[in-house]
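User: New here, any thoughts?
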Amino acid sequence: MKSSTIDQDKSKSEKRVKTERSGPIRVLVFPTCSEPGLEIVRGLIDQPGLEVVGGSSLPPTRDPSSLILRDHTTLPWLGTGEFQDALTNLLRDRSIHVVFPATDNLIAALSRTDLGDVVLVAPRPEVAEICMSKWKTYERLQAVVPVPQVYRGDHDVEFPAYAKPAAEAGMRGHMQVDDPEDLSIARTRDLIITEFLPGEEYEVNCLSDLQGRLLYANIRRLGRRVAGHVLDSQSVEDEHVTRYVEAIAAELGIEGPWFAQFKRNREDHPVLIEVNARIGGGSGLNRFCGVNLPLLAVKLFTGQSIPEPVLRRQAEVTRSLQFYVNTGPIGRVVWVLRSLNRSDGKVNPRAMACLFDLRNRGVSQLLLHPSGVDVRRLLKKEEIPVVFDEFVPYRVEGQGGCVEALSGLCGNGSGRDVFVTDGIDPSPQEILEHLPGVVVATPDTLEILGSEPMA
């Protein structure tokens, strides 16, 4: 179990520094199928001196990190009898040095688990327990910062009110309570009924050292929210929120990464909603502010020095869904010349990235081009890298010449060939009709080509 004493923390830090000198630090991020897990992976991947192992209890086909990490594993669900033994075996077999949990319940469970010499990026068990429960959070902090009024009796409720689970993060199970009928439903679901907070919402991403001293706090104003996911956010300054976060840090002494959420009440004053002792799913904004919270957390817990104070710049971000496509093994990619350019005639930067990624993976690449075109001269003029193993000319465009040439290359329908077309000539439908065994990618579906998994 991770010690809360300074001497024991120092001893573990010295042990981890010795491990770093003898080789890279191997970090298990679990579960990686969640937004917080993916953010931790994004922060740690491709960092010198680190190797990332990802895992979840979902099948790999439902975990995007299985497509971007070389080392990915599946563990039983937390709470099952097999979980602890499977985790112990994984830590031993993969030579894991650091475990970086991504969910509240896992943090609470592992904070009370003996992991031997493995370092856990998590606070003390009592802090994890407080942050798991909104009841305990409000009770502990009500004399320190403003917390929502909680309606314990139905006769006290002022409509509209708000209802949420006591131990769920995010927006799962939340509902607005507009009338007695809604109130009855919320009580049946055993939800906490609080005052309605109509104003702007903020998330403050924080990092504290192993003694609970606040090192960094960045206030994000949250914008559009879809299905519980915040799509727009920007870093802002607010003296009240800053003072409240400092007070929370002093009262709880949370070690490592954590975040607090606030919402303005009817009087336009920020009120605490919840505190979470982990990385937030939308905390990637901090990386664009110049602060990589997952990386700093690993350095802290492995005894490495980090800058003090942790400085940042302002940033504003907009998020959207991203697709990860599991195409399976690719034996060869055939590009048609026009697919290397955008519709405006300029070189397509996304296609260029794919060229280099495929080269890094050792995937053979061919280029189909109209006969009579000096393709090498054209590539040189456009400064397109010559990564192609073969140049294949075809006869007049628009008359089936490209399909004919492609048939000569991929006629056996092995299922491991991918053809990249501009989507017009030939169209995906033409390829599907004549060469059903060939996977077709277009400028809007280059994710089909995948990417090289990273350590």
Remarks:
- The chain has 14 helices and 21 strands.
- The first helix runs from residue 6 to 21.
- The radius of gyration is 26 Å.
